[in-house]
Design brief:
The complex is a heterotrimer of chains A (105), B (626) and C (167). Chain A has one domain: Helix Hairpins (Orthogonal Bundle), CATH 1.10.287. Helix content of chain A is 74%, strand content 0%. Chain A has helices at 4-24, 28-53, 57-87. In chain B, strand 2 and strand 3 (81-89) form a beta hairpin. Chain C has one domain: Four Helix Bundle (Hemerythrin (Met), subunit A). Chain C is built from 6 helices and no strands. In chain C, helix 1 packs antiparallel against helix 2 and helix 2 (27-47) packs antiparallel against helix 3. The chains are: A mainly alpha (105), B mainly alpha (626), C mainly alpha (167). The interface between B and C is small, with 9 and 9 residues.
């Protein structure tokens, strides 16, 4: 029989997939979507635990997270538009202006 | 025991004048009339006041026949180690004080005439007075630590005054040489003091307590202490092997040579041995060692002086030689004869140096005797006073040198050490030979060149005359019994001399032998030098003598060069190894930071990677912990 | 029984579309996989009894957010040459999966240690209950989220504006 533990395991796996996606892919869209995946995994944990503890607060928190994710999505994509217009590239390796400059002492 | 605060004033008056001169020099230059009258007043007034106080103190001592003392303050008071800053005047220190203050004052007058218009006049007199202060402290000290302070002080002033004209590199090196060799001796002296403290330090460290407790020192240590203290005297009084600084010290102005390196500082070693008589009386082996060192130093110095051409260097070697006599005396237990010779030597040696200085001044700073000659007709007064002094140093009666030297020689014979006596006798002949060589070449032998003489100052003549009177008359204060006297001086000094009985016949024979050896020296010198200033050749040994037996060169090879190599090695280790190592540490940090820069590559994915690496490690750790 | 089957189907769909999302080269494909993932998660929410959340997830996340993403992807007119070439994509993914595995395994082991009741289907989070909670306990965050959305709106408008005459 299925119990909450399985949901939690699934959520953990999804979270790990999200981390792998952020690190491995160079395409900034995929990176962004992996982040969204991580947020969803967290939502899943919250709802599962709220079911376990019979407490509605978990679900409300999940709603908050969804709302914030929506706001964040708009900002992300606006920035992607600007980046693409300036650099004509979607490569995450390309945007390294904040790197440490090499200097010889 | 009487307390007298005048003791401290003897020292303080010269110290104050020295200090005032030092301060004034900073603010004023010696080029206006006010300065010209203040500076001599301070420079000569300080020693004069000290002389007055000394006379009064000695008078008080003689009247009351007791020791004067003065305690200034307690310098150190640590558990089991107490040193008082206190002064003492007993017959021994009074004997030293008498001639140091008197001859010192006379030489200050002479220095005023000698330094004359030199613009660094105040600096000279500041150091000169400081020297007097340190010497007084040395003499009047109540305990060996105060003595050592004075000891170091005179060493310092010797250095300052030798390298007085410091623009010249040679003068500076001479000063360094003097100070370094002195320091080597001081190492022995301090070690001896430390051992003294170790064994009998608890019950008081002044001379009286040390004398009372000296029997408590185990016999194994007594010899060592006596030897170590004597090492200090070797350095200070220029005996073998630490004598090489004394000829070089003649680089200083002539008044410095007269006061410091003839009359006073170099005799501090003899005074120290006499002061520690209670120690040396218990250590006859070391006493014998001292006597041998004195004998060989006297002989070596006399040999070298035979072929020196610089007038001051001849006198320097003769000082070393006479110091050898003093050490022969105190080494074999004749403390009062040694001190008496110190006393008489101060007068005639100071006069010889002052006369030499007058000659040098008159001949426009010419110091080579081969370039002088036939000065008798031009400077008759100088000739006569130098003649008297030379007769005194050769031991011809009735001058003071005869009485002191004869007493020493008799004592040497009577002690049974005939080898030392023979060396001393030979040296006496050599002494009169080389001193009269100097006199004849300078005054009698025909001169190679025309001399334009500068006029002599009256002040110089006055000071020379005063000292001549001293030479003529001071011999009689220690008139031996043989001549009908009472040896008053020796009795007054009250030191535990070894007394050997000599029959009257032996004494007469010895007297004749001594005087005849001296006369032989004079006659040979007369024969060689009355007509020419060319030295007759001795043969093969002449080259050795002329090069001072290559001792300086030997020391350079044996000691100076290895130390040079050692210091180069240490510099090498310091620069190459230690500095490189430190630099390696710092440069490795720089390299580390250089390579750490690669981490911050601006790429967000890598940052996420590093974060996850951190998180994973934490979780691995948690997992392992269970 | 039925719930277990539904759970496994939904779980499988979620995981496979998640893995597909991070694997596809074209962003359109990834976005479509994301939709499948989100819908599956919505289903999982429904399984857990959160009916309101099921609706919210579909409407906002799958409906608005992903729609926005698709719109931007198409707006930018991405050509083949604009996409980054990722030569070692597979190896990176495998390596990272290996790196993350301790983290994942540890958490799973933690979960296994815990005791859970089995799933009971009920309508746990009805709209009325969640709404009551939202407007009583959570009213302040609720209002602040609305301000947040306003700020995001303004920010996006400013960011995406054409530069005209600004230095």
């Amino acid at each position: 029989m299925i119990d909450i533990g399985h949901f939690l395991i699934l959520a953990i796996l999804l979270f790990s997939v999200g981390i792998v996606g952020v690190i491995s892919r160079r395409n900034i869209f995929v990176m962004y979507m992996s982040i969204e995946l991580m947020l969803n995994a967290v939502n899943l944990i919250l709802v599962a635990l709220s079911h376990h503890f019979e407490d509605l607060n978990g679900q409300v928190m999940a709603i908050m997270i969804i709302a914030i994710a929506a706001a964040e999505a708009s900002i992300f994509l606006a920035l992607f538009v600007m980046l693409f217009k300036n650099a004509r590239s979607l490569d995450a390796n390309f945007f390294d202006l904040l790197k440490q400059e090499k200097h010889n002492d | 025991m009487i307390e007298s605060s005048l003791l401290i004033w003897v020292i303080v008056s010269v110290a104050l004048s020295s200090l005032t001169l030092m301060l004034l020099t900073i603010y004023n230059k010696y080029n206006n009339d006010i300065a010209k009258s203040i500076y001599p007043l301070l420079g000569i007034g300080g020693p004069f006041i000290s002389l007055l106080f000394s006379i009064f103190l000695i008078y008080t001592l003689l009247i009351n026949e007791t020791t004067l003392y003065y305690k200034a303050f307690t310098w150190l008071d640590i558990e089991g180690f107490t040193i008082q800053a206190s002064l003492m005047l007993d017959p021994l220190s009074a004997a030293m004080l008498s001639f140091v203050s008197f001859v010192g004052f006379i030489i200050h007058l002479y220095a005023h005439a000698y330094m004359g218009d030199d613009t660094s006049y105040p600096r000279f007199f500041a150091w000169f007075n400081l020297f007097m202060a340190a010497m007084f402290l040395l003499i009047l000290a109540d305990n060996p630590f105060m003595l050592f302070i004075g000891w170091e002080g005179v060493g310092l002033c010797s250095y300052l005054l030798i390298s007085y004209y410091f623009d010249n590199e040679e003068n500076v090196q001479a000063g360094n040489k003097a100070f370094i060799l002195n320091r080597i001796g001081d190492f022995g002296f301090i070690s001896g003091l430390a051992l003294l403290f170790l064994y009998i330090g608890e019950s008081g460290l002044d001379f009286a307590s040390l004398e009372a407790n000296v029997h408590l020192i185990p016999s194994s240590a007594i010899n060592l202490i006596a030897f170590l203290l004597f090492v200090g005297a070797i350095g200070k009084s220029a005996q073998i092997p630490l004598y090489i600084w004394l000829p070089d010290a003649m680089a200083g102005p002539t008044p410095v040579s007269a006061l410091i390196h003839a009359a006073t500082m170099v005799t501090a070693g003899v005074y120290m041995v006499a002061r520690f008589h209670f120690l040396y009386a218990m250590s006859e082996d070391i006493g014998l060692f001292i006597a041998y060192i004195g004998a060989f130093s006297a002989l070596l110095a006399a040999l070298i002086a035979l072929r020196q051409d610089d007038i001051k260097k001849i006198l320097a070697y003769s000082t070393m030689s006479q110091l050898g006599y003093m050490f022969m005396a105190v080494g074999l237990g004749a403390y009062s004869y040694g001190i008496f010779h110190v006393f008489t030597h101060a007068f005639f040696k100071a006069l010889l140096f002052m006369g030499a200085g007058a000659i040098i001044l008159a001949l426009h700073h010419e110091q080579n005797i081969k370039k002088m000659g036939a000065l008798r007709s031009k400077m008759p007064f100088l000739f006569s006073v130098m003649l008297i002094a030379t007769l005194a140093i050769s031991g011809i009666p009735p001058f003071s040198g005869f009485f002191s030297k004869d007493a020493i020689l008799n004592h040497l014979f009577a002690s049974g050490h005939f080898d030392i006596f023979a060396i001393a006798l030979l040296t006496a002949a050599l002494t009169s030979y080389y001193m009269f060589r100097l006199l004849f070449i300078v005054f009698i032998s025909p001169s190679q060149q025309e001399h334009k003489l500068l006029p002599q100052s009256q002040l110089i003549k006055l000071t020379l005359s005063i000292l001549t009177i001293g030479i003529v008359f001071t011999g009689f204060i220690n008139l031996p019994v043989f001549f009908g006297g009472n040896e008053n001086y020796s009795i007054w000094l009250n030191l535990p001399d070894m007394r050997y009985g000599l029959s009257h016949l032996s004494e007469i024979i010895l007297l004749l032998v001594n005087v005849s050896f001296a006369l032989i020296g004079i006659l040979m010198a007369y024969a060689h030098y009355k007509d020419s200033s060319v030295d007759p050749s001795f043969g093969a040994i002449e080259k050795w003598i002329k090069n001072r037996f290559y001792i300086d060169e030997l020391y350079a090879i044996l000691i100076v060069k290895p130390i040079g190599y050692l210091s180069h090695l240490i510099v090498y280790i310091d620069e190459q190894l230690i500095d490189r190592f430190i630099h390696l540490i710092s440069s490795s940090y720089q390299r580390l930071s250089y390579y750490s820069d690669y981490v911050q590559n601006g790429n967000v994915r890598y940052y996420a990677l590093y974060m996850s690496v951190g998180i994973v490690s934490i979780f691995i750790y948690l997992g392992i912990q269970g | 029984m039925l719930s277990s089957i539904i759970f496994f189907i939904l779980a499988f769909a979620t995981l496979s579309s998640a893995i597909g999302m991070i694997y596809f080269r074209q962003p359109i494909n990834s976005a479509l996989s994301l939709i499948v993932t989100l819908l599956s998660i919505a289903g999982l929410f429904a399984l857990l009894g959160g009916s309101f959340l099921f609706l919210v997830q579909i409407i906002i996340y799958a409906g608005a957010v992903v729609a926005l993403i698709l719109f931007i992807i198409m707006f930018l007119n991405i050509k083949e040459e604009n996409l980054p070439d990722e030569p070692y994509k597979g190896r990176w993914i495998l390596a990272m999966a290996l790196l993350i595995s301790p983290f994942t395994l540890y958490l799973i082991s933690l979960v296994n240690k815990m005791e859970f009741k089995s799933l009971h289907l009920q309508d746990f989070g009805s709209i009325k209950d969640v709404g009551m909670k939202l407007y009583t306990d959570w009213v302040l965050p609720f209002e602040m989220i609305s301000i947040l959305l306003l700020i995001a709106l303004i920010g996006v408008v400013i960011l995406a504006r054409k530069e005209k005459g600004r230095d």
